[in-house]
Amino acid sequence: MTGRRGGRPLVPAYLSTGGVARPSRNSLERLSVLTGGGGPEPAGLPAAQHALLDVLDGGSLTVVETAALLELPVSAVRVLAAELIDQGLVSARPPIPVAALPAPDLLKRVADGLRALKQ
Amino acid sequence: MPFSRSPLKVHQMIEIPDLAAGGLAAGTLSAFVLAGGLLSSRRRGARQQEEVAGLRSQVDAARAETGGVSRAYAAEVSHLAQRRVPAEATRAAHPHVQVPGPLHPDLAGTELGAGLDGVLDGVAAAVAQERKRVDAAARAGMRGATREIQAGLYRLQDQLRGLQQRYDDPELAQTLFALDHENEQSLRRAQVTAVVCGAWVGLAREESHLVDAVTGGQSRLVGYHRVRIHNHLETGTALVSHAVEPVAIIVAELLDNALRHSAPDTEVVVNLERAHHGVSVTIDDAGVGMSPDERAYAQRMVAGTEPILLSELGDPPRMGLAAIGQLTRQFDLSVDLSSPSPYGGVRAVLLVKNHLLSRIDPAQRPPAAAAPRSTRTAAEQPVPEAVPLAPEPVAAYDTGAISHEPAPDGDALPQRRRRARAALPAETAAAPARTPEESAAALGALQSGTAAARSAAPTEGNEPR
User: Fold this and answer.
1) What is this model's ipTM?
2) Residue B336's CB: how many other CB atoms inside 10 A?
């Protein structure tokens, strides 16, 4: 059992945001990283926002990963995340530009160097 | 009297003195005799004439009477043809129509009266039969058309959801959401019409969380913003596969009724609660409520005990209650509308019996993100055996939750690692075997469903007259 829902979803995506697809902020991209506040969840949050906080669970995930886990379109997650950011329950940082990623090779050499220093 | 005098003259010529007296006496005697005879014959003639006259008048009277009776017959038959038969035919569709009685009230109980009533009974039976036949034909036609429409709308839904996944431009997404919602509503209409016409619900679903079915039903309505769902069930309470779509349809129709009959600024409250015999879905609105007549009508429709005729659903046809009736009958669900809501409106209670319920491990398959969470706190939730809770709830989402973990010790680079589902003991992945009771309940449901469909078949009106 893969755990993935088979067939047609019973609950359409628009229900998660109450039909809203325009986020309150436009800063979120697919690869923006969301970080849960980790604090207690306030009562009265809409179910989908609760679910998003559950998925983050104080850790960090990109928008697109969150969408995959919640089985929602990215557009819906952007709306949910934007609302949570507005309430201070989630923080977001822009995606790391691809060009700025260090090469794994380099990291490996640095790690080897550090280990060599330690010994 | 010439013939009585002639014998007297003959005697006078032979011996006048002797014979005179005797002759006279004899003559007088015979005259008397003759006169007597004459008188009696006259009297008899008169009597006969009287009798004849009497008989003639009787015959006249009888003839007059016969004429009157046949005129009455003709009037009665034409009254039957012009008034009573049309009224009887109308009454098949409108039970409040009164069928007039015979012209002569004293006809009741006679042979003629019984004959005429027999005509009416025959007409009523023929009209009822014909109505059923026409209705069955109409339903078959509608069924074919709605099935095509429904299939087309599902294809459209697939396309729309594909687009939603692919494009996340807010403006486009907004349009796609609106289209998806419109599509859901059309789909609901087509599906309900098909169900009323005796079709299958049109979509096979897998075992799903009950709260998902209810939320799915909610999403099919225009006023879904006004619906508040309170989920008091254990997490993981689910519906067996064949009950998912019927429950979603019934909830959607009950909610539609509630939204339609309450003010736009009021909420419709849904409570999901565990009952002894199953799970109850209670829908309360704060609307105007129903009159006792409406309540009785609605209760009769949702009970699903009587066959439904399309022509009885009004114009525009009120499909919702009829569809609920069909589904409750087919799937052994029960809907009750008999008690008023404490909010003043209508309270509808859908009871899903235990044999239609199952359990889904929420860690394996969580409910939809938009489905309201259970109000039960974790402490109240019975922890399912043999499923050790994952150390962190994130692991509930098993499709590859990624976390930042520190490198174990020294050797490798810090890596983002999938939370491994494989870390769980192997037996937890195996679906729990069905208990004999569950198997029996499933087979029983199949059997009762088959029996219900068979008993429903003769109502189609195809039987020969």
Assistant:
1) 0.80
2) 15
Q: In this structure, is residue A55 part of a structural domain?
A: yes
- Which residue in chain B has the smallest CA separation from A65? B401
* A110: in domain: yes
pLDDT (tens digit per residue) in B62-104? 999 999 888 888 998 899 999 999 999 888 888 888 888 888 8
d(C-alpha B223, C-alpha B205), whole Å:
25
Q: Which domain holds residue A29?
A: 14-118
DSSP H helices, B80-167, are: 85-93, 111-166
pLDDT greater at residue B428 or residue B120 = B120
Quote the minimal CA–CA distance from A117 to chain B in Å: 13
The pTM (predicted TM-score) of the whole model is 0.70
Residue ranges of the domains in chain B? 2-93, 129-377+433-460
What is the total count of domains within chain A? 1
Task: List all residues of chain B from 248 to 287 with a beta carbon under 8 Å from chain A.
Answer: 248
For chain A, the three-class secondary structure string (H helix, E strand, C coil) is CCCCCCCCCCCCCHHHHCCCCCCCCCCCCCCCEEEECCCCCCCCCCHHHHHHHHHHCCCEEEHHHHHHHHCCCHHHHHHHHHHHHHCCCEEEECCCCHHHCCCHHHHHHHHHHHHHHHC
Closest CA to B150 of B197, B191, B121, B119: B191
Determine, for residues A21 and B173 on separate chains, whether the beta-carbon distance falls below 8 Å: yes
Mutation pick from B182, B184, B394 vs chain A, by most beta carbons of A within 10 Å, is B394
Chosen for mutation from B153, B177, B185, B221 (greatest number of chain A CBs closer than 10 Å) is B177
Are B267 and B286 spatial neighbours (Cβ–Cβ below 8 Å)? yes
Residues of A in contact with B373 (CB under 8 A): 47, 50-51
Interface contact A21-B170, CB threshold 8 A: yes
Q: Does B334 touch chain A (CB under 8 A)?
A: no
Find out whether A15 and B219 touch, Cβ atoms under 8 Å.
yes
Which residues of chain B make contact with A21, given a CB cutoff of 8 A? 170, 173-174, 176-177
Torsion, Cα B196 B199 B203 B205, to 10 degrees, reads 90
Residue B420 contacts A where some CB pair is shorter than 8 Å: no
Which amino acid belongs to residue B17? P
**Which is nearest to B336 in space by CA: B405, B404, B250?**
B250
Say how far apart CA B346 and CA B342 lie, in whole Å: 8
Q: Regarding the domain with residue range B129-377+433-460, which homologous superfamily does it belong to in the CATH classification?
A: Histidine kinase-like ATPase, C-terminal domain (3.30.565.10)
